[in-house]
Amino acid sequence: MKQSERNIQRTLPLDIALKIASSLKVLDLCSLGSCSRFWRDSCGSDSIWESLTKQRWPSLHSSSFDPNTKGWKEIYIRMHREKAGSAAEVVGFVEQCSLSESIDVGDYQKAIEDLSSMQLSFEDVRMFLFKSKLNVLLNLVGMHYCIFCLEMPADRVMDTLVGCDILERKVHVKWWKLGRWFYGFRMRDESCSCWVSLEDLLTGKGEEVLGVLRRGAVHEVFRVEISISNPTSTSWCQSTQGQG
Fold first, then answer.
1. Are residues 69 and 107 in the same domain?
2. Cβ contacts of 195 within 8 Å, gap of 6 or more
3. InterPro entries from the entry (predicted)?
4. CA distances from 168 to 11, 124, 236 (A)
5. pLDDT at position 244
6. Pick from 43, 76, 109: which residue ends a domain?
7. Do 228 and 135 contact (CB within 8 A), yes or no?
8. 65, 100, 225, 229: least surrounded by Cβ within 10 Å?
């Protein structure tokens, strides 16, 4: 044992070391645990990893654990790998559906349903989908899932998007509405087109667009398309009449 490690053990009580370790995020905790045998034992405490696991996956039930699991750190690592694999499936699906830089609302909603069936947590979405290197359509899928499936407060989601540097990323949403019937005649179909940022969708400015994305192609709306926006566009929203 190195002299410096002996000095730490003599001067730093175990309960204080555990308190320090329990205040860290996972990556910092792992880094500290690699410094010495003393910190490896402290940072590997089962109580710390139990708390981290339950914080990240609040709906996790102990009945689903493998009986051969040795401790909470192993459970956390297994869950992390499982959720990373699930998120990768959704990423691959959306990227495949958006090769032309647009995605049909049916595929968009399927991606959200898949996230729900995989039971990804808010932290999972932040870690795997709220990345600036990913297609903004994936950022949008993750945001939609957090708002409507996890029912996360909009301000918390917004703070997270700020931290991930993706809040101002934009998408283009276009939807087509059936023409209304007027005195026995059907009016021309109407198309609406909007450039909207993720921030807009979390505020009142993008309320109508978010509603369209949530409902999809139902009732009077017969088609919805989401594509990567052109950041040089200055037009936010416009409507045009189509052929009746």
1. no
2. 170, 171, 172, 229, 230, 233, 235, 236, 237
3. F-box_dom, FBXO4
4. 49, 21, 14
5. 42
6. 76
7. yes
8. 100
Residues 6+ away with beta carbon under 8 Å from 181:
187
Residues 158 and 52 both lie in one domain:
no
Find all residues with CB under 8 Å of 222, minimum gap 6, and list them.
176, 177, 178
- Tokens standing for residue 55: 């914080």
Label the pairing between strands 185-186 and 221-228. unpaired
Instruction: State whether 94 and 171 are in the same domain.
Output: yes
Under the banding of pLDDT at 50, 70 and 90, the label for residue 243 is very low
203 shares a domain with 170: yes
Let me know how many helices (H) and strands (E) the chain has, helices first: 12, 7
225: left (phi over 0), alpha (psi -120 to 50) or beta: beta
- Rounded CA-CA distance 40/244 in Å is 71
**What share of the chain in percent tops pLDDT 90?**
48
Number of domains the chain contains: 2
Length of the chain: 244
Task: Report DSSP state, residue 177.
Answer: E
Among 76, 100, 115, give the residue marking a domain's end. 76
Q: Do 206 and 114 share a structural domain?
A: yes
Q: Same domain for 71 and 174?
A: no
